[in-house]
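Lab meeting notes turned into a lecture example. A postdoc, R.K., suggested we walk through two folding results consecutively so the class can see how the record format repeats. The first protein's sequence and structure tokens come next.
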Amino acid sequence: MAYKILLPEQYKTLTSFTELSSVALGGSIVSVSDEFFAEAVNLLKVEPAPSMKGQFGPNGALYSGWETKRHNPTYDWVIIRLGAPGSIVGFDIDTSHFNGNEAPEASVDGLINGQPGSKWQEILPKVPLGPDARHLFQLSQLAPGCSQVRLNQYPDGGIARFRVYGVVAPYEPKDPSEIFDLAFVSNGGRVVNVSDQHFGVASNVILPGRGKDMGDGWETRRSRDKGHTEWLIIKLARAGVLDTVDIDTAHFKGNYPESCELHAINSDLDSPTFDAKWDLILSRQKTFAHQIHSFKLENVKNKKYTHVRVTIYPDGGLKRVRIYGSVEIPKQGAGSAPIKVVDASVSRSGVHEAKFLSHDEFALFGSVCQAYRNLKAVPPGIKVTPANQGTANKFNNLADIVSSFPEGKAGTQSVSIYRSTPSEAELGKEFTVRVLERHPCNNQVFIPMGSGGRVGTDDLTVHARVYLVIVALNGKDDKPDLGTLKAFIASASQGVSYNAGVWHHPIIALEQPTDFACVETQIGGGDKLDCEVLELSEANGLPVVALPSLD
């Protein structure tokens, strides 16, 4: 297959496509011929390779990369499973800091779709490599449907990073009114243009999860000019009707943007120009350090867009951008079906990533009970009134106490206290969901008692006590619809109200014991109308929730 060599300043050409091999997307090492000096897993790391000059281990000098023994009579190889299968556009073979021990030549083979009996096909023929340099290659035509690649180096030596760029097939919702993250990389979203990415690559903003540090976010240079802005353009997975956006500044604590705004356009171009006719869909909003900001988009009703431009003032760093919408205008009217949410936090491997609890994200399942420091961030429909001689604000009617027990089964409204202790669920790890419960005839409100730790959203910045909330809608078989399962991390300043009939896991305290006040209507005596508990079947595969690390 033909290719062309790109100059270093043309690197942005490749980064307008998806880094299919990244460990942040789920890329992994399948097997390797040799990794005596340095492990092949380093090839897939998000951050650039650092210099480890002067550092030594038991086998010799240390390098952040893949390095094999000397004197291989043939060649060394490593097989990589792509995090997101797709059509390959090009490669970045980086020998940074390998000087005198770099791989002199390399080639790349692809395995189409990973089907049994498939044969390796050459994608990039043998090319020369130099010391301590990035080698960028763009294919003359797409290599379609690859699930694995094999990097070969001749005859041996070291490579610091290996990045495979391509296009992910766009997500196809079964129901066109489903709301999902149109920007998410595994759904087919792409960052196609950016003003500056001096410290962090712009395409990181559509990766899964919240990452581990500033290195897997987007960060620009510092500006000194009045009125300066930076921006990036996201090509959505599909043209869609937009609804809400999450702007996450996780880990950016002294270098987050002062504010941001969003524009959108419907264009046939892969990357519309900055001066094209863009519609303002989010007026300029203040941003804060190390938190998720959720905004309802403006002026988007009954319009379909293909691209969104995120502008930050004047500079700084963003960790993630989530843009929720549907491919068709949702049907209106009393007879319309409820909107099913397909979340970017559900990876193609079926692992559900816990998100930070917010009013809009939880609306299908119940209500969030919290106060807001910034009254402009109060969701529509919540009435705020001054109280206590002007010393307080009252956020009215956040959750009604409702019940619909049949005649002769009258319940009693009461307040109970649950003392919840941490279980096997831990921040930064995965948790298997084995049981769900529901309250068919009443809602249930949980209010944590204790210090007001704050996590994740516009008003929640520093975590203290946190807990895990897992919910799912009822399915057609009167069992949980696990396709709607969602997980949330909530703080001690947030309560939740589960709607009647919503399946949920018993609340799980994280890090330390937490007391919860529970307001509900009960019959008592173990009646199933109060609470129905269902153990999930392992035969059908148990849902897995990935919890973020809050460090």
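The second example is placed directly after the first for contrast:
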Amino acid sequence: MKKLNKIIKFPLFSMALMVLVSACDFEEINTPFTQVSDEEMNRDNMKSGAMLKNLQNWVVPTQNNAYQMTENLLGDVYGRYMTASDDKFNIQNFAIYTASEKWINWPFKNVMPNVYTNWNQIREITEGKGVIFAWAQLLRVASMQRLTDVYGPIPYSKVETGELKVAYDSQEEVYHNMFNDLDWAIDVLTSSAANSDNSTMKDFDLVYGGDFTKWVKLANSLKLRMAMRIRFVDPILAKEMAEEAISHPIGVITTNSDNASIESPVDGNPLYIMWKTYGDTRVCADIASYMNGYKDPRREKYFQTATINSTTGYLGLRAGANIKNTAWGEAYSAPVAENTDRVMWMTASEIAFLKAEGTLAGWNMGGSTVGDLYNEGIKLSFEQWGVSGADAYSNDAVSKQDKYVDPNNMYSTGAVSTVTIKWEEEADETVKLERIMTQKWLALWPNGQEAWSEYRRTGYPVFFSVAQNVSPNIVVANRIPFCVDEYKNNAENMDAALKVLNGADNYQTRLWWDVYRK
């Protein structure tokens, strides 16, 4: 049972819990609801396995078209990891805010039904209890956390029967409900990891092969990520959630052996398909200029070299560039991705940087100093990519972002940041935050959507302006507009959705948690 203050804070959860308890008979009350019998486990496994696989494939969508529309053309572009390189994207492009209705609709129209169809069937099979539903609940939160950070308000608490034409929650309500659902899932999964044999679930686990201790670490790590996301808008709740995640008996991801990644589908790794088969994406100038300036040894793991007009190196392309033709765009550096690579969700490096920022904020993140955790984040990232030289890199107090020299002499621009790598305890809080966020951004590659969210939350790292900026007041979008089809298919709830958005339904309106950056 969670602490009373949480139940008071989130009344929807407490009502659901009272209904659950009142519906149980005496035997059920005296049987821990985190336990299920072997017979029930086998029954639920057989019925739920395929749906659990589907849910895992929608956290970061692995099907190539879904990945392209929810990650590569959206998060990767706004996170300044990659940018569109095909001339067909001169007409519609998220970078220059000319995306079509189809593009704007895609994340909502595809993620929502695919997640909730599978989640609701598992909920019905399990009657909303037990380890399998807890697993599904964790996967639901992981998917919806990404979706709410794209649009803001989304349907969440009212989606109980699989019907999606329901009222929207404000983003604050979405986060509060996600914390409650995640806490319940952590409790159940923790008990299961300690007391049950989950080997029968191995065939359905595309991430950890049935190791539920690692799933608990992922759940706590997601809780820490979500807590940091709301740090500047709700610091009291953020601190409480973050410290609970760190102090949990199983804890968070701390080693690369616990990194969360999913098998690529049979048709191949989606990022490989983006750069190789489709030829639609190339490395963005922003990340190339930082890593070139820092002489970062991870470049060869992230980027392919290119030669343009006798210039050879890691050649990034400015976001929003006017692509002369596809061959012109494809000449810039492509990302490194092989067809059999796994799709990464969360890494130990990200968690180290979260803990560094938490410590900077005065939270109890386990006792290490901010600088030690910062250096640990760099070390873990180098280890993840199989690169040596982390100590020398961390001690570089001179190197800075490079200016961007376009080999085609069209979009060159000066550096926009002077932050160096080496941790400086005497630096002011703003410089410390920029240093943490810049190195975290480099380590998050290629999770573009998380990079976009962290930029919006903090304003770091500093990005170049868009090469062709039709909206000069913003560097990257603060959100994307609501799914256009919702105005037709769910019209009765859209007026209320606009009210809880607290702004116009456009790219400029900030999300609830986006209150810190200038």
